[in-house]
Amino acid sequence: MFLWRKTKLQAVSVHHCRLCSLFRGAIEVTGTQSQASLQHGLAGKTLSNARNISVLSKLRTSIRFDVWSIDRTEAFSTISGSILLQARDPAKLNEEIQIAVDEHRCDEAWRLFEQHMQMDGFPRKSVVNNVLVCFAESLDSNWLQKGYSLVEQAFEESKQNLLEKEPLVYLSLALAKSGMVVPASTILRKLVETEEYPHVSAWSAVLAHMSLAGSGSYLSAELILEIGYLFQNNRVDPRKKSNAPLLAMKPNTQALNIALAGCLLFGTTRKAEQLLDMIPKIGVKADANLLVIMAHIYERNGRREELRKLQRHIDEACNLKDSQFWQFYNCLLMCHLKFGDLEFASKMVLEMLRRGKVAKNSLGSAILGFDTADDDDRLKLRKVTEIGSEVKEHDTPKTQVFSIHSMITYEDFSRDRKFLKLEAETKDVLGALLAKLHVQVELITSERGVLQPTEEIYVKLAKAFLDSGKMKELAEFLLKAEHEDSPVSSDNSMLVNVINACISLGMLDQAHDLLDEMRMAGVRTGTSVYSSLLKAYCKTNRTREVSSLLRDAQKAGIQIDSSCYEALIQSQVIQNDTHGALNVFKEMKEAKIPRGGNQQFEKLLKGCEGNAEAGLMSKLLREIREGQSLDAGVHDWNNVIHFFTKKGLMQDAEKALTRMRSLGHSPNAQTFHSMVTGYAAIGSKYTEVTELWGEMKSIAAATSLMRFDQELLDSVLYTFVRGGFFSRANEVVGMMEKDNMFVDKYKYRVLFLKYHKTAYKGKAPKVQSESQLRKREAGLTFKKWLGLS
Q1: Domain spans of the chain, in order of start
Q2: CA nearest 369: which of 427, 436, 425, 322?
Q3: d(CA 422, CA 241)
Q4: Does residue 236 sit in helix, strand or coil?
Q5: Residues of the chain falling short of pLDDT 50
Q6: pTM
Q7: From 3.30.70, 1.25.40, 1.10.8, 3.20.20, which CATH number describes the 80-193 domain?
């Protein structure tokens, strides 16, 4: 029956096509033809026009009858549409599409293309690729999406042989420039899958524009990991000529710099560290930019030992710019602060000031290099300019101008076989990313080529000393710093600013300790510090401390002002000590102190609370109020666990995690990320990851120190999908989508098809337990999310 219907349908279609041709011919004739002549296609006798129209109407009616005699009720509209299209010559339609493309009429080209698809499927290979190029050159999101859907359809119908490599790379570049990072990366992945390997300079340009967005930077790192895997451990023999296209795709230094800089800017530094681990495996040489980017990554992830190893390369590098050099030492300082190594951090600052003072008095200008390889932590002076030469101010990287709203023409793109224009554009984007990284440097600056500490480093060091209760060390550091730096008035010194900040935050004991250290060091200060601390004691009714501070003020020869006496009197009255209040009043009268004395501290505090210019005190107030106190022990244990997981020593990593918990250090996202990726590397440890997942959720519910981020959840999701734990995988996906985190569906689609391709196909078994039913439902839900159902 089916064969008969198919045969009849074909016959009716041919019959209808012939009659349509006759119908057009009948309208064009000026005379009339007989019914017999019309039916046999012969020229002969003529009939009236009315009779011709009547005959043709009958013929059309008979065709409709034949079509509707088929059981499928919707067949008529489909057949009639295809019949009208088949009346046109496919070759002619190809020419019309090409003309529309040449004239950049995308809407007309797409209309004709759709007609050809309905009539005869895909047009000629050259036409298909020219349509893609036309859409790419427009940089219009609507046409780019249509171009990408065309590529998708070609792959779905296994007609990817119609697509050429160059137009696909060109379309991918246009998609990346328009912010459509997922389609752009998918095209590159499809090219690699079909062994149409794009040149590294071409796909690096795509990655450069992708890395300007958060999801794009993550995808860029994933792409380099996937491409780099093909070249690990000398898998590709460079001696074979057949491997030349593949070797031309190998990631280079510029591609890595792009991906790493994007990861840094958008906070995915653990993914960036995975790229760093891959570099020696594929044999990529580091340039100056890569060395500085590595320093930023190690600092963010708390890898102090790696920074110390990197320092040797920084000191030996001869092509480092001034800005790159101080970025490295900014990272080193930040890392020492994370680990609570205040002694070394303060030594670095003091030596910078000391050497800077010497350099300012010398004829040449120099920058500092710190040689920590020696036991005594000596610093060495690096001469970078000759006497009389000038160093450009800050040597700040300039952001090159590049446009995301214009495309290189396809003609220039196809002629540039070495991709020099794309390489230059990639370099411009990299310069823009590095300039953004440069802005984030806040602890060290450069004055005429000399490294100098900023106020931020004093703020962070002061907070760290205060948190650790090291008042004596803080006072010594600030006094030495003032001695090396330009002298200022005693009431505006760094130490006085720190004391005032402590008073305003209610840290009165710390302020008093610092004031004692200042007095014992023989440094004289003004009245305002004693006055503000005395009034703060009076407000909190701390009588004993008030008496002690008054004695210290008398020893230092400080005469307190009338506002302090008024605060003392008020404090005595509140405590119902009328006799004491009268004694204070008499003392004030005898000292002949005028009323309305010094209000300097109140003015200073009011200025800090408002929007006044940010000075040292205001910055310190903000840092203490808003900054988090870091647990240096967590960083130490994270490094230990990371070392074991990289070596595949998971039992040792588990022991270290247990020890970390027993010492009272709470694991954070970095701890769990190292453990999960370690288990994923050795495989078959899905139960252990499940237990860790439960611990993560309980810690996150109990404290704010544990925060789920994209990198951690992505590593957990990968392990659950690999092991077939789809119920928990759906839980992780829901969590990521709730927080608007990017999920690389393509990666998980490939992973699912690799390990679970035959799972959950066909009808469900008639007999299955409740747990089996839930497992199947979870698998089908995940499969549907991937778009595979």
Answers
A1: 80-193, 197-285, 666-786
A2: 322
A3: 26
A4: coil
A5: 1-87, 363-401, 596-614
A6: 0.78
A7: 1.25.40
